[in-house]
Design brief:
282 residues, alpha/beta, 5-stranded parallel sheet, globular
Length: 282
Amino acid sequence: MKIVNLSKLNKILKPYTATLVGGVFDLFNAEYLRYLRECSKVGRPLVVIVQADKTARIRSGYNRPIMNERQRAEIIAALEFVDFVLILAKPSDYEKYLKIIKPRNYIYPKGIMKHRRYTARLITDKFPNIKIFFLDNKLHRYNADFLAQQILARRDYTKIKNSIIRQLYYVADNSKAVIGKISALIVLNNKIIAKSDNIESKNMHAECIVVNKAKSQGVDLRKAKLYILIPPCKHCAEFILKNNINKIYYLHPYGNDDGIKFLNKNGIKVKKIKFKHKRYDK
């Protein structure tokens, strides 16, 4: 059986021999097939991490994934050039997997490269024996998002009473970003001053874009609040600190919390928004 847990894989693999790649892989199609085939050419054995349903839901948007984590894992395990498949239980916490698997190669799809390269540097600093590869993102752009939009209903925003949460979801749901439909808001005196999603053409994450928008309006960021769909990455946390924002709130946990830890270390508290999970947050 190719679908294995982390402890079993640790016993099978020799350190610094495998190639590791991860993704959602919802609505599996020919472009995903080509992408993973290219990954296998970087090196074997090829280990594919499939993001769990709760992570895919945040990353890909409302009513996703269409195929559950087990179904997605089984499809990928059926590929002859894939050697092992893991289901990623904790949202986007690849660091834990890198420590245990110790791959020789770690593959990123090309995306917002400023952040991709920054994260790659953090990885190579901690794991100098791991080589980072960036594969062309066009390989897996056979638009699963387009197919999903034809199939799925939109979120019912009328059920979301909290205006901040409603706007975070609305901006994220309507994002045109291929990877990472994430939103951010700047609020001053209980009024939304600026909002943004991840915009690839700007090569920045949503929280950095929205901060720049507020700055251009002359907003005193020391008095403002920053709301984000998920916690900031460390790169964005450094940007937030630089711009004197000291009130940060996020809606969904995600990742290894490097950004939160960095801000906390510098005396800035990052808080999770408390709300009741209803149908709109499936």
